[in-house]
Amino acid sequence: DDSDDSGRRSHANLIAGSYQKFSTREALENTIRDCQAEIQAAVNCGFDIDEETHARAERASEEMRKILPMRLVIHSVEDLSKIVEGLQMQKESVLRSSLDLNKAQEIQDKIDQLQDQIKKEEDFILAKRLGEIEREKEKVIVGILKQSKKQYDEDRLAESEKQSVTCVDIDVRNDDDSSTEVSFLSSFEHHPETTLACGFTNVFGKSCW
Known about the structure:
The protein is about 85% helix and about 0% strand. By secondary structure, the chain is mostly helical.
């Protein structure tokens, strides 16, 4: 009897400690997956593993050793639903056979606790999925912003190159005008009459030479 009592107390302590560390089975599974990822990362490194990766893998392995037994006491939603179904049948049997309301209430209290736990599990899973959706949305938004900035930079570069070409074209025309002006002044200095006549003639598109 003492050994049975000790075993029950140990089991009760395991349950209490497990739920204190992980409020839901899904939270436990998340931690197990994280530990497995750390260990796998160390395995993938082979002989080239660095000290930090090796240390993380050792911590993950130690954590796995502690938390894996908790799978026995932290039930999944599926397991909890089956237990609730069994208790419902037990309560109905008590009410039909003995009309023991106290016993039926005790069973109902257990059902209520399990249903509360099922609600916690479902809320945790829903929050996790919503978090994943939000992270995906953020990735999409960041991608759109990066693409928009890239397009904006390309448009600015194209506009800048276009303006540079325009400025060069204006400079070339200005150089041609300046050359013409210098040529005209030089010609006027030596042959004023001819140059003036040529200048007026050129207005009408005719050559004076």
